[in-house]
Write a structure and sequence with these properties.
Blueprint lengths: L7 H9 L5 H36 L10 E6 L11 E2 L14 E5 L3 H10 L1 E6 L5 E8 L4 H13 L15 E7 L10 E3 L2 H4 L2 E3 L1 E5 L1 E6 L1 E6 L6 E7 L9 E4 L5 E7 L2 E6 L7 E6 L15 E2 L6 H9 L6 H11 L5 E9 L7 E2 L17 E9 L9 H15 L3 E8 L1
Parallel strand pairs: 20-21
Antiparallel strand pairs: 1-9, 1-17, 2-9, 3-6, 3-8, 4-5, 4-7, 5-6, 10-16, 11-12, 12-15, 13-16, 14-15, 18-20, 19-21
Helix pairs in contact: 1-2
Amino acid sequence: MDERTFDYENYIQEQLRRIDNLDERRFAKQLLLESLGKVIAWSEQKYDALEQRIQKELDIPWKHFHICMTVIDRKDYDPINNFWFPVCEEDVKKKQASACETIYLAGNEKVCRDFLEMGILQGISKDTGESIRFQIRPSDKYLGSMCKLYKLFTSNHVPWQTVHMGHMERFFDLIPLTEDGQITETDWIIQDEKWADYIRRDVILLWNIRQFTVHSREYRVPCIDEVFYEHVFYLPREQKSEDGYLVDAAEAILSIRYEQNRIVLKTKEETLEDIAVYRLYQGSPEQSAGYRYPVLSNRRKDNLSARYSQQTGNFIQTPLELKRKVEEMADGYQMQVIGYEILDGVEKDYLEGDMNSFTGVRLFTSDTRKILLLRIKAKERYQEEYLYEAQIRYILSQLQLEFLEYRCMGKLEK
């Protein structure tokens, strides 16, 4: 029996009932419960304190910086939701006429690939009933926000963890074209019923990041040979301890120090303008009416051994370790690694971890590495099954940051 789950007090109470002599029972109760009971309670308190200390020492540095994303219909956007915020503020402003419409494709990897390769989508003009053609392009609407987020992590010295881009990469731009190739503006409906089942119009992307501006207060810090200034920025009072903060610091910033309820920037500049701070909300997402699409995040299942490995920097690259990492990042999708292979070549149906390509980091210009192929099987079926392969690609993208000697790829087994 696990000593941590053993109910000492209840056990003693049951044993005391077996003593028929009331005086002896009273003496035994005083000795065992009131005397030894205090010793046991003190021991458990110290044990819990030691456990909390170990947990704190093995704390992962990015636990306050998890990124969550979802999509919603524009009409369902709730401006008072305290967890979800638009990736692009333009999405929630008054919609203006545009020659390019951005749509969301609720399809799996093959559907998205076929849609892009098709190149042209057929539609029907609502005004005239005539056929109209749309040029299909991958949308880069939200890419700038991702690049800025990566720079914020780097400048704030927070370890970068792969952001789940499953929703983001399903946005496509549709450009209506006339016969002579000129762009035109018109309202339209989808002609092909096949694509009508996948295309979602007027959808926007949300994440758990909110930007706000804070005012600085300067404090001169004495130094032997130079003068430095510490600019203190006080955080909102309603902040939560688990939320993370990123500062949009300029090049003049020498260091960033986070303290309780405030951020301290060290710089040589005597004055500093107000700065932008990004708050990363943690905890459970807040629900609002119409928020029905699945949530994708880079949160991991908490694991003490994993935290110890991260702290020491020692990674045992074994099949068991690979399975543990996949299960740790699987989130709500149940995945089973049924095997792995080391291969020389790539096949067409392999999934690749390419969700960090926007960072611009290429360690191997002429990539001759072998392929580390993970064979993954779904343990059950899901309502949002079209995102299952995207979840695998997210896992492969994070594994690629840790297993640099291989090209991490995967295959979903039926």
